Amino acid sequence: MKPIAEAYKDFPILTRTHRGKRIAYLDSGATTQIPVPVMKALETHMANHNGNPHRGAHVLAMEASEAYEGTRDVVQRFINARKREEIIFTRNTTESLNLIAHSYALKHIKAGDKIVITVAEHHANLVTWQFVCRVTGATLEYMYLDETGHIKDGEMDKIDASTKIVSFAHVSNVLGMEFPVKELVERAHAVGAIAILDGAQSAPHQAIDVQALDCDFFVFSGHKMCASQGIGVVYGKYHLLEDMDPFLFGGDMIEYVKEQTTTFNEVPYKFEAGTPNAHGAVTLKAAIEYLEQFGMDAIHEYEQELVRYVLPKLAAMPHIHLLGSANPEEKHGVIAFTVDDVHPHDVATIMDSHGVCLRSGHHCAQPLGAYYGVPASNRISMYIYTKKEDLDQFLEALKTVRPTMGLSE
Ligand code: PMP
Fold first, then answer.
1. Regarding the domain delimited by 4-35+295-404, which CATH topology (the fold level of the hierarchy) does it fall under?
2. Which pLDDT does position 11 carry in this prediction?
3. Which of 15, 221, 354, 355 is 20 to 30 A from residue 165's alpha carbon, by CA?
């Protein structure tokens, strides 16, 4: 196995400076940086094998098909899906959830049904269901959390006989915490609902086994795991996918087209209309193979070590308030916080002047901010190339924030 402590050397961007300071990139929850092997894989593909997948019998079209379909095999193995056909390529997690909403939910959900989510969901896993409810007459119901980010007692009982979909983040992009997946999936299945897992913040950081999770759909984005932007994945159980309508219509998703009617291609191709993002797929394959050199369990443990290092130090600072649990064992490499009397955008601007890249704002989870009465916050998020040095740079810079604003330290 390749040692994770050496990973940062593969990321050229981390050697650049900003305002005379080394960059401490702590916004991997938004998007991750790209290692050289992934860049090289794309360069090799573009220089040698570029063509339009599934179209044409010439060598370049066929090699492009092999590259694109090869990624499907790698993703199948990566998340332990039963069949390669259970892997559908999209642009990102957002499009993946929209695909499920349009192709599954609009077909199966009716007035009187319920969709249950948590109040911590990313807008991608929330606005989408508002849309489905508006169109179908179904109701969107929320499971609420306690102060430390855990689902409150009794809230899971909202998953009842009228519930048809339970959808939730595997790991929250604000709280950095994992919801009780096993229990939520079991409760969904016990009432005949499907369970959808938003894996945007989990698939890049820990081993995923969709068969063990037993979720009906699992979605994630390549750009949060060292691949390029514009490639995402839907995993769906085959019998569900088979029964679903197409999402987008056009080339490649058809079998036969007549003037008035069309028969559709088989799963997964009926969900992949138009020229696919083969370039993104090439980077996703290379990214997965790159991550697997370290091992997903080792990546998870490495990030936990970083959390154990930074979280107590951050929590002990005056004027800092964490969102969600302060227990490092419950926190993945995502930590959101506020600074007393300083707007998160000011915090981010001051941190930027120290070379520290972190996130500020509502993190695309406005209902969670409203629920906790914290409409905006800051967030650091880590990955394999994060070093303790980055976290020290962050902690040092954070000490300057309040004094810079003319407040006590
Ligand atoms: N869900 C979660 C939990 C996320 O963190 C994100 C990205 N911040 C998304 C969904 C949306 O991902 P994308 O922008 O790649 O579609």
1. Aspartate Aminotransferase, domain 1 (3.90.1150)
2. 98
3. 221
